[in-house]
Amino acid sequence: MITKIALSKYIKQTALELGFHKVGIAAAGPLPHSEYLIEWLYKGYHGSMHWMEKYLDKRLDVHKLYPPAKSVIAVAQNYYTPYSHSQNPEQAKISRYAWGRDYHKIMKKKLKELLYRIQERDQSIDGRLFVDTAPIQDKLWAQEAGIGWQGKNTNILTKDLGSWIFLGELVINKILIYDDKISDHCGSCSACIDACPTNALQPYKLDATKCLSFLTIEHWDAPIPKEFHKKMNNWVFGCDICQDVCPWNRFAKESDEQAYYPVANNHRITLAELEVLSEEEFKKRFKNSAVLRAKFTNFMRNVHTISKAQSR
Ligand code: B12
Ligand code: SF4
Ligand code: SF4
After folding, report:
1. 125 and 266 share a domain?
2. What per-residue confidence (pLDDT) applies to 236?
3. Is residue 181 part of a domain?
4. Residue 208 lies in a domain
5. Mean pLDDT of all residues in the chain?
6. Within a domain: residue 90?
7. Residues 268 and 168 in one domain
8. Model confidence at 133, in pLDDT bands (50, 70, 90)?
């Protein structure tokens, strides 16, 4: 029978071997700040993301999602690649996280392998894995497990990789050794809040209804409200402004995960090219990419809205 110290060590070492860049472990207990999620929903900050209201009990309590939960193994993968957004007004901007292949599939495969390798050591272990695929609060678990702190832009930040990381969890039915939380290192900085073009941010709080990421990815089948047209600044899918200005992202390092490197020149694509994209071409071009989440009609709405605003 493997001891919990040896098992915890083995899990961390294996996660790193499988290509995760950060791993931490938290007890599957109650989450601090969970009450804010309720306040956020009550204030309507989630806009039309009604799926955030569903299974709220599970989002607030991991035991409702997976009753035997004892430990949450939180993992992160660096997706920083050495390219920046073009400032050429003819270029469309797709946020960095969607330049390469969809992280959900990449991370899920690695988490499945991690569970399999843990089970090889101890067959009594069972678990469930999550990569933004179920009602679970990825950012809060990453904080509990000591991966990073939540910055004022609401993303999880690390000292050595900045915030260009994807998050996921493997929840298992075994007690392990737990990591300490990392303290907040935002200090008196407010660069993200000052740079947000739509005033969507207050310290540690985001009103998604004003966020370009929400408006271009999750605001489906309705026009983008007029007040945001001139502020879209060529963001056709997502927005990286509040991360690009973050001083901790000066410490970003090139990822060794080839899957996150730009596919089909997604980081250098003109508005003119996108204007004439057919649905078939859209599906082909963004096959295996997170961009598909927006669906063709919404993606084209974004492109046309920006082009129109530019010509005014
Ligand atoms: C809904 C959602 C969105 C929404 C809302 C974003 C948001 N900030 O909540 C929209 C569509 C806008 C969005 C955008 C983006 N998203 Co998103 N999104 C999610 C999702 C599905 C849920 C997040 C959530 O629960 N929001 C609810 C609110 C209430 O949570 P919160 O803002 O974190 O609130 C907490 C704090 O405010 C805290 N709090 C309250 N008061 C105080 C006070 C203090 C002092 C402190 C410290 C904390 C604190 O308590 C709250 C606890 O719930 C997660 C995946 C998941 N399942 O968790 C991905 C996730 C957060 N998204 C991710 C990414 C990459 C993005 C984008 C960067 C994509 C892009 N480039 O466009 C942007 C970032 C925009 C931004 N500034 O946040 C990553 C973030 C990785 C990271 N490093 O943190 C996640 C974790 C997906 C993943 N698995 O990797 N997203
Ligand atoms: S992603 Fe863009 S619009 Fe959303 S909060 Fe950050 S800077 Fe503002
Ligand atoms: S820009 Fe400044 S305040 Fe915002 S997340 Fe980064 S360090 Fe924190």
Report:
1. no
2. 98
3. no
4. yes
5. 96
6. no
7. no
8. confident
Per the DSSP assignment, residues forming a β-bridge with 249 are none
Same domain, 165 and 198: no
Ligand 1 site, residue 153, Cβ cutoff 6 A: yes
What's the CA-to-centroid distance between 258 and ligand 3, angstroms?
28
- Can you tell me which atom of ligand 2 is nearest the CA of 206? 5
Asked if the model's pLDDT at residue 244 lies above 80, the reply is yes
Residues 166 and 19 in one domain: yes
Q: Is 55 left (phi over 0), alpha (psi -120 to 50) or beta?
A: left
Q: Where are the beta strands (DSSP E) in 145-260?
A: 149-150, 156-157, 165-172, 201-202, 205-206, 235-237
154 Cβ closer than 6 Å to some ligand 1 atom: yes
Q: What is the pLDDT of residue 40?
A: 97
**Contact of 128 with 191, CB cutoff 8 Å:** no
- pLDDT for 30 equals 87
Percent of the chain with pLDDT over 90: 96
Indicate whether 13 and 142 sit together in one domain.
Answer: yes
Question: Residue for token digits 């082909």?
Answer: 284
Q: Examine residue 185 and state whether it is found in any structural domain, yes or no.
A: no
With a 6 A CB cut-off, is 149 part of the ligand 3 pocket?
no
172, 202, 225 — which closes off a domain? 172
Q: Do 209 and 294 belong to one domain?
A: yes
Instruction: Among 248, 249, 250, 251, say which to mutate for ligand 3: greatest number of ligand atoms within 8 Å of CB.
Output: 248
Q: CB of 241 closer than 6 A to ligand 2?
A: yes
The answer to whether the CB of 277 falls within 8 A of the CB of 220 is no
Please tell me whether residues 164 and 243 are part of one structural domain.
Answer: no
| DSSP letter string, 162-174 | BT-EEEEEEEESS
For residue 312, pLDDT over 80 is answered with no
As for how many domains the chain has, the answer is 2
Instruction: Cite the active site residues.
Output: 132
Q: Which ligand is nearest to the CA of 188?
A: 3
Amino acid at 55: Y
Which pLDDT belongs to residue 32? 84
pLDDT of residue 1: 78
**Structural domain that includes position 33:** 4-84+96-172
Tell how far the Cα of 208 is from the centroid of ligand 1, in angstroms: 9
